[in-house]
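Narrative of accomplishments. A recurring question from our advisory board has been how the design workflow behaves on a single, concrete structure rather than in aggregate. To address it, we present the structure tokens for one chain from the evaluation set, followed by the sequence designed for it. No filtering or post-editing was applied between the two.
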């Protein structure tokens, strides 16, 4: 437990002192958008390896997406995830089950039954909820218990390409995904949300126009929150020329101007959370052509250093960056905000902001290596993590 948090605390006789000179201590991060792949995709990630990667990245609470095989759409599947996480003994999980049965978009799940086992957030992530009437009904249903619908904004009829429609798609001779594939669905979702009291969250927005629509004055009555990913504020579509399939994701990396303006919007306070959208894939799904490769990159271990690099470079205060990685996502998921207040269970991170390193394939805890950030110099490294007791210290996990 946290006994006290203030300057000049006297050491008790049985206390262990850790020299934290020059280091930071902050509450464990909350990553609200993580794909752990188990069950059905254990060749890409398991609950154990995913939670280990989370802890190594300073993330102590993980919102787990339901696009597994079978999808997480029943109370039993939610309980299975919780039991597996407890057996691992690392990060806390927040199950985020489906909005529709089987993620098929046709029939809603039983929100009441899922709420009874602790679910409060729901998503068909990987796909939007195409049926607008179903989406409206879902928002009304979760409003009864202060829940949230997390929507993947995409008009799939427009999103048939592999990369952003622009200069890079032309150079590579690939069919591009137009910006309207995202912005048109954001507009649809905002209209629906404005006709409900329910909480709608729009995830992984990649365009300034999408943020503008979500914050438009005409929708001021809608209860809508949004997040962005570190890779969409750190990288632009040019990364495909260097990293190939490891820079292929959905939504795609956008133009340099879009990237810059999106990051400025984060700095200006228009975004509620930053989430990794950790999407591991076995090597066989990332080999071959860009057209054939799967969408998505891993991001648990780079969530914090990449966010800090870009946003500190824009002179955004560290405390506000950490808010987007802790209290912001916690509020969206409907869980208590992380805190260092006395009387709370220790859930905290010791972080060296000056440490420089390069994340290597052999140095990652994730089972997959699909990211353009491998080999890139990163600054800031997690030294220790406590969840009640020490669970991680100097690159190793407690027994």
């Amino acid at each position: 437990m946290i006994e006290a948090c203030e300057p000049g605390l006297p050491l008790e006789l049985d206390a262990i002192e850790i020299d934290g000179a020059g280091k930071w201590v902050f509450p464990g991060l909350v990553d609200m958008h993580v794909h752990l792949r188990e069950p059905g995709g254990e060749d890409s990630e398991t609950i154990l390896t995913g939670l280990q990667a989370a802890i190594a990245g300073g993330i102590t609470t993980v919102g787990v997406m339901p696009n597994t095989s079978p999808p997480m759409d029943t109370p039993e599947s939610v309980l299975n995830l919780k039991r597996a996480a407890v057996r691992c003994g690392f990060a806390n999980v927040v199950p985020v089950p489906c909005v529709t049965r089987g993620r098929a978009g046709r029939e809603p799940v039983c929100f009441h039954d899922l709420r009874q086992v602790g679910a409060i957030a729901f998503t068909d992530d990987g796909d939007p909820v195409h049926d607008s009437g179903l989406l409206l009904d879902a928002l009304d249903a979760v409003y009864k218990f202060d829940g949230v619908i997390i929507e993947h904004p995409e008009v799939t009829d427009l999103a048939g390409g592999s990369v952003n429609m622009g200069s890079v798609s032309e150079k590579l001779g690939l069919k591009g995904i137009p910006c309207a594939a995202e912005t048109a669905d954001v507009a649809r979702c905002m209209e629906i949300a404005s006709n409900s009291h329910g909480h709608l969250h729009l995830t992984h927005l990649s365009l300034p126009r999408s943020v503008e629509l979500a914050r438009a004055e005409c929708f001021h009555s809608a209860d809508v929150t949004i997040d962005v990913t570190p890779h969409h504020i750190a990288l632009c579509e040019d990364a495909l020329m260097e990293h190939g399939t490891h820079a292929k994701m959905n939504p795609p990396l956008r133009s340099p101007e879009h990237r810059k303006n999106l990051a400025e919007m984060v700095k200006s306070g228009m975004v509620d959370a930053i989430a990794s959208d950790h999407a591991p894939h076995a090597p066989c799904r990332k080999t071959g052509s860009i057209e054939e490769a799967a969408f998505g990159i891993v991001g648990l271990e780079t969530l914090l250093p990449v966010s800090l690099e870009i946003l500190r470079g824009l002179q955004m205060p560290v405390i506000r960056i950490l808010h987007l990685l802790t209290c912001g996502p916690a509020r969206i998921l409907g869980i208590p905000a992380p805190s260092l207040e006395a009387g709370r269970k220790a859930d905290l991170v010791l972080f060296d902001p000056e440490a420089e390193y390069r994340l290597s394939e052999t140095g990652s805890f994730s089972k997959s290596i699909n990211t353009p950030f491998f080999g890139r110099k990163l600054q800031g490294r997690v030294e220790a993590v406590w969840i009640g007791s020490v669970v991680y210290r100097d690159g190793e996990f407690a027994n």
